[in-house]
Amino acid sequence: MNVSRKFLIGVPYVWLLILFLIPFLIVFKIALSDYAVSIPPYAPTLDLANGWQGILDLLSGLDFENFAFLLDDDLYWKAYLSSVQIAATATLLTLLVGFPIAYGMVNAPDEWRPSLMMLVILPFWTSFLIRVYAWIGILSNEGLLNSFLLWLGVISEPLIILNTNIAVYIGIVYTYLPFMILPIYASLEKLDASLLEAAQDLGCTRIGAFWAVTVHLAKPGIIAGCFLVFIPALGEVVIPSLLGGSRTLMIGKVLWEEFFSNRDWTVASAVAIILLLILVIPIVLFQRNEQKQREAGQ
Amino acid sequence: MTINPAFAPWLDPQAKPIIDFQSVTKNYGDFTAIDNIDLKIYPREFFALLGPSGCGKTTLMRMLAGFETATKGTILIDGQDMADVPAHKRAVNMMFQSYALFPHLSVADNIAFGLKRSDMPKSEIGGRVDEMLRLVQLGKFAKRKPHQLSGGQRQRVALARALAKGPKLLLLDEPLGALDKKLRHETQFELMDIQEKTGTTFVIVTHDQEEAMTVASRIAVMDHGRLAQVDTPDRVYEVPNSVYVADFIGDVNIIRGAVGSVDSDIADLKWSEGAAPIRALAGPDLKPGARAAFAVRPEKVGISQSEPTDMHNRVQGRVEDIAYLGNMSMYFVRLADGTLVKAQVANVRRISRRGITWDDQVWLSWTDTAGIILPD
Q1: What is the pLDDT averaged over residues A141-146?
Q2: Could you tell me the pTM of the whole model?
Q3: CA distance B353 to B296
Q4: Would you call B65 and A217 a contact, using CB atoms and an 8 Å cutoff?
């Protein structure tokens, strides 16, 4: 192996080391520390002036107390569970909304496709925070949606949507929809129309052919889209904080409050480490799906 | 095709057709893809729809499969009106030009796809799949995915899948179009073999006239949504009913002129001032004085250095070009009035013994029944 190849392979590893592994180890170290009224708000800290003895002192001061605390207080595992449930439901909803959109885009006339693609991507050009605030304006009791429905006479009292889990679902579906649409669109785009005819020719009804061919061939796109929505939705902070209510329990929100309201960095770090471990499972599954696709595509 | 001389159901008025197009028209907006076609195809036939792209041959086939409906007219399959029968309920299977193999399924699962959706008991499906794999000699490839196969192997899987349900009628859309020439020739004979073994009626769409001639019991030559001629390969070649057909099938010399006299089956064509009229078979609908064209195949034109006295049809010209094709040579002879006539001679001798060369004055001659005079 020559030097330039080593260098090329080395770059991503150095990147991971600096931007992932070292910060992770720092967070992990904080998670093993104890809470202290000091700056920074944890102890022990590394004192390099003492040399080896300083490192040994540091290591002896570390323990798993914070992780034990997470198990003791049922707030945390309830928050994890609730996050998984909310993220999974929101992912399913995003799929139900995203698949028809992707399917419609693929079947749209060729000259429409770039415009439709543009419309899917366009929201990314505005700040995510502003778009979530905009939903407050739409969903609140005096918001656009309620005013409109009251004006239509469909309802006589405003619907309470804001500050409920429904608002969180709406927010997640809205925010992550492009991540669902784009991979499904990519997998449907390659679909040969004669495959559907072949399925019908061999005895499938139209709906049967759609299921046996279109949905099956879109499966890699559907799986990729679901992971791309589920993984960030699980740790989502902004959407549950702004759109969810006091009873919306999501681990991202708990983490945020632990860090900034409680200023308990040690417990917050432990929460973050566990969240990462939970996320590793879907990320590994996602990578495996991608790998399988690459092999099948050869 | 090695036709059993007895197999000519189209000549038997009692025979029941498996396919019956009755005054079928198909319009796409203003465009008429199929223009009032009547056509009967009989069981066990290997029927070829032949024509240039856009002539309507694919539309005709897709109507049989159930992917298109006729704008006007009736299509009967086995005596049953197909107007309201959707594609998935027809005892018709199609082999697609792109093969349309399901990329996520193995070879065996592709073949089993239709069987699983039929009323065949589950226990019998495996046996049927094996039988089809043997038929197309792909036993070893049952577990492969389509992308792991060569073009020729994919073509066989597509054929096996289309035949698995034992359809009454198999439609083949340019089935050999994606194969190279040598493989195409081999596969043509395999197709004929499989057709004979299974006894299925085959309808093939092709733009390759050689392929149609090789495999088909009858050929329908199509032109702009109409049937120009429907006949056996030898009759389409030997007695075309129009200049279009004569020109589309094989190589041909066309000499244009006006009809002289018309006997029952022999006619004269006045083609050049001062030259003796050409005498040849009379095509349909010839009227004395009308414009007509004489069509003769190059291999039926003789070439000699001295004037042949035993033939009525003889003309003199100058050899302009010679194409040496190995097994035969094509002579391009310019006649006095400027017409270029091709004469094809089998190279039974070695080339060095050839007596005729460039710029030689030669005589071209042909018998009275070698060519045909057709309305132009």
Answers
A1: 92
A2: 0.82
A3: 27
A4: no
